[in-house]
Amino acid sequence: MRVSIRNGGEEPLDVAGALVASTLDEPAAESFYTTVIASRTDDAESGACASTLHLDLGAPGTPTHRLVVQTAAVNFHRELSVAGSNDQTNWTPLAGGVAIYAFETPKFTGHNLEIPYPESAFRYLRVIIENRDDPPLPVAGVSAVGLARKLIFEAEPGAEYSLYYGNAEARRAAYDFERVLSYLDTDDLPAANLGPQAANPHFVLPEPLAPPEPPASERYPWIITVAVIAAAIAVGGLLFGFIKQAKKSLPPPA
């Protein structure tokens, strides 16, 4: 490597040496989740066949960004699309036009059975396989893949801690430990074991807000009728008084 230093008319720098650095990229740790194929349908439209698989991860909130298809088939190429949902009614598209394949031929042997998509936390995933004029692709199973997460906290030896979760309205916690964490070695931390799951006896659902009270005109619709009648009587009385007073001020007939 050659380094040129422009002195700009100044005395040359006294260079005693140099250091060369490089960046090492390591793949992120991932977790594999086994999904349940809740249902599968193979439909043929206009001579082309499409298979629809509904996958269930068991609960919403599991972050995933890739599916891995298990199949014993070879020498195939299929395009797929993926959508996510939490109620199996409203589906959000996650990926489309993704191809999986597996070839074993004298000229080429290789496979790609992974379907990437942006990270999501849906419970249900719908995979549509475009078989076209080929027989439906046999699928033995599908695994979901997500980045491995760690919950790191300061713990006293021998102490027990409770993990509360499930409150969708909880705010994000902010601790000094978050700033200290970047200066700690977290590779070989002791792992805690989760105990049995139990309902929080101190959690009380907030009372729903009472709907606003409707105006009096809606609660007592007869008020408007009474007010109109009263106003008509008052106006009629005033007119009668004016007419009577006008008759008194007229001169007597000749």
> What summary fits the major beta sheet?
6 strands, antiparallel
Roughly what percent helix? Answer: 10-25%
Indicate the proportion of strand residues: 25-35%
Record field, number of beta strands: 10
How confident is the prediction overall: mean pLDDT?
87
Structural class by SSE content: alpha+beta
What overall form do the CA principal axes indicate?
elongated
Element pattern in H and E? EEEEEEEEEEHHH
| Sequence stretches where pLDDT stays below 50 over 5 or more residues | none
Distance between the termini: 132 Å
> Largest beta sheet: what is the strand line-up?
2-3-9-5-6-7
Rg over CA atoms, rounded to whole Å, is: 38 Å
Count of helical stretches? 3
List the defining traits of the structure above.
254 residues; alpha+beta; 3 helices; 15% helix; six-stranded antiparallel β-sheet; 32% strand; four-stranded antiparallel β-sheet
How would you portray this structure in words?
This protein is of the alpha+beta class and 254 residues long.
Task: Describe the structure concisely.
The protein has 254 residues and is an alpha+beta fold. It contains 3 helices and 10 strands. The chain has helices at 177-181, 216-219, 222-249, and strands spanning 30-34, 36-45, 48-56, 64-70, 76-85, 92-104, 109-112, 114-120, 124-132, 141-147.
